[in-house]
Amino acid sequence: MATQSSFDNIEVEPLLLPSSPSFQNKKVWYKTPSAYWLLPMFIVVSITSGLTIAAEVQLYLRTVCHYYYSRNGNFTSDFSFSSINDTDKDCNNADVQAITSRFLMALNLCSAIPAIFVLGPLGTLSDRKGRKRTLLISTTGTILSTLNLLLVGNFLDTFGIYFFLVGSVVEGMTGGFFSLSEASYAYATDCTSSTRRNVIFGWIQGAMFAGFSIGPTIGGWIVKITDNLLSVYYVKLVINIMLFFFFLFILPESLTEENLLTNLKRQRGLNSTISTNSWINSFISLFYNIFGPLAIFLPNDNSKQQNNNDKVPIVFFTKYSSLSLAITYTLLSASIMAMTNIFLLYTSLVFKWSLLEQGYFIFIQSVTKVFVLFILYPILVKFKKRILSLLSKFQKILSKNLGYNIIQGRVVEENQMRKELIFEVWVIRLVLLIDALSHVAYGLATSGSVFIGVTIVSALGIITTPAIKSLQTNLVPPSQIGRLLGAISVIDSILRIIVPLIFDNLYSILVKKFPNLIWYFISALLFAGCLSSFGVGPK
Length: 539
Fold this sequence. Notes:
Blueprint: H1 2-16, H2 21-27, H3 38-51, H4 53-71, H5 94-129, H6 131-154, H7 156-159, H8 164-173, H9 176-191, H10 197-226, H11 231-249, H12 257-271, H13 279-291, H14 321-350, H15 355-382, H16 384-402, H17 416-444, H18 448-458, H19 464-473, H20 481-510, H21 517-532
Helix pairs in contact: 3-10, 3-11, 4-5, 4-15, 5-6, 5-8, 5-9, 5-12, 5-14, 5-20, 6-8, 6-9, 6-11, 9-20, 10-15, 10-19, 14-19, 14-20, 14-21, 17-18, 17-19, 17-21
């Protein structure tokens, strides 16, 4: 009878409340939040970003070149981005590249320093007010920074080269791409079960690289047809304005009013110990707002204030696993940021690649990463139970013949979820090792074809980012997802200050005699990340 009564209630309620928001959210697909909303969005965002990847470095290289020679009185004509010759020997030399590397470092600093102050609060804001608000703020910053670049590019002699820095400051103050990316991961986390999260995160990142695979090539052709480096930025501006309206009017919010209220109560409890009655406490409050989200990685930070609907999904990992994952992610992100600008400068100097050839290279690199994330990684996840079964049989044989058991960190005869998560940790370790060895091979490459071949192998390293983020989201309560991803954004922002200071300056020193040594320094970060990942595991 109880079952019959419940069934009757379910049948009657839609008839009584056909306009109920909850009813419509369940029935109307375009009002239902889903991670699949993000896949086409990320393709569009990454195509737009890819349009300017190679063009951006060439733009700044050419601008710095003009500044360098005009300061010495060697340029007699007015500067223009038209009639480009991206193989110009006057600009493509070690002296100009060294100055360009330092200017790119300044751009990164102007974006990263303001971002440190806003990325943590933006992550917390997304927990309290919804993911859409953070997405809108970050997209607005991208629009304004693109407008600044177009303004300076068209009136360079009026504004000067250093006015480019204003756009970087604006983008940093609104979070930029890092804020958009982490808010998107938080959105996907809200809509996805913990067992499917690693695949969905991989798809999102795969969608991003799908766009990156064609964006640079399209950008190269646009520049070639229009004969103007700024043309791709007009396209970027229009697409970002369209994206803003997509977030505003079409994308459904992933957090319900109940979720937002729960998150707000939890955050008030976390912040209740901070007072702002004096300037000292105000400073402490400011410091906490910036770096407070990083405390989520510390042991025992997530063991408090849990209820039945807000528990940590994984409780059998050691209390230091989250901190070890954060260190591993930090070293991995540092290696990625270190090579972002350097590889474009390096290939144009060592292999004499043009803008279009660099676009082809990025296409090959991105297509390989898309294959890994959309095909290879899901296959690995799908068949991991069979792989674990084989490893378990192998472990039994070892235990029987050699007389010992495989200790923790290996596949053991425990519950299936535990074994699957240990398997994912070992995938992270192995892929980090392959990535580190690939960067050593970059330094040994003597031709462009060898460099491309190494890139195809190193594409396996892209697995680590979604795998680490998926594991991290399973080590915190659901109400802290935005705070977690905000903390990851803070790490990225801090790295955007430290990494360019170290590696751009290091490359400017090495570029004249030993440019290939830069790859060995980057590989050291990945080896350290591989070692750090051994701190992640079950109790």
